[in-house]
Amino acid sequence: MGGAERTARKRRQQQLAGKTDGGKVVAAARRGGGDGKRIAAIVGVVVVVLAVVIGGLVWTNASKNATEGQAIEPATTQVDLPERRDGAVVVLGDENAPVTIDVYADFLCPVCASFEHQYGPQLKDKVASGQVQVRQHMLPMLMERSDPPGYSLDSANAALLAADEGKFVEFHDSLFAQQPEEGKRGYDKDQLIQLGRDLGITGEAFADGVRSGKYDGLLEQEMQRVSNDTSLHRDFGGGNVGFGTPTVVANGKIVDLGDTAWLDKVAPAS
């Protein structure tokens, strides 16, 4: 092989190597571009996930605190019922009525709200007609089921103070009509005081009693008494026997609320 031929072959080898190296560089660049796209995609997914999580937290907190700053709309009643407070119980109607119904409830209990919506108007009519006397036991049973805890006690205390002012029925109906969700924020003491004012309670005794928890001790004693009263216990199945809300007692006997005609059976229309 002559020198000229060897020189030409060497030149061809260098050119081929250059092309191969260039291919490697291009492939590497392409691979690098793919990694960049994957990184960008991953970052985008993380950002979206974070946005969803943060949005969920904001929505959850807003839902949890739905009652914050909310005015409780005052309820109106079509009948004027005699009412008086007897310790931790509010008595509605004529003490000489032939039928006495005791209603045990909690302002945070959703089943209690359903009971009031379904039977409240009928009970008022029978109280107004003199057929029935109703004894309302508002209990702090779900103390730990609001966030922060304590709404059951604060609302029950405020209701007793409203009864002292002759405004129990309206106060009671207002709280059940706009019941906070169990597990979330209830109404604070200032909101309860404002509801009283909106219902026409102008004296400072009501506001002072709400702030100080005037009847808290009385209500806690009543809760303990009721819990220990085996005549109020029911079998909830699965070996669970005890007291629960709502519990309705007519002339000393627990009512089966599964029977929608229970009230007409207890106090037939005259």
From TrEMBL:
Superkingdom of the organism of origin: Bacteria
Protein family: Belongs to the thioredoxin family. DsbA subfamily.
Annotated spans, Disordered: 1-23
Keywords: Disulfide bond, Isomerase, Membrane, Oxidoreductase, Redox-active center, Signal, Transmembrane, Transmembrane helix
InterPro entries, per the entry: Thioredoxin-like_fold (IPR012336), Thioredoxin-like_sf (IPR036249)
Protein name as annotated: Protein-disulfide isomerase
CDD domains reported in the protein's UniProt record: DsbA_family
TM annotation in the entry: 39-59
Ranges for domain Thioredoxin-like fold: 90-256
Pfam families, A to Z: Thioredoxin_4
GO MF annotations, alphabetized: isomerase activity; oxidoreductase activity
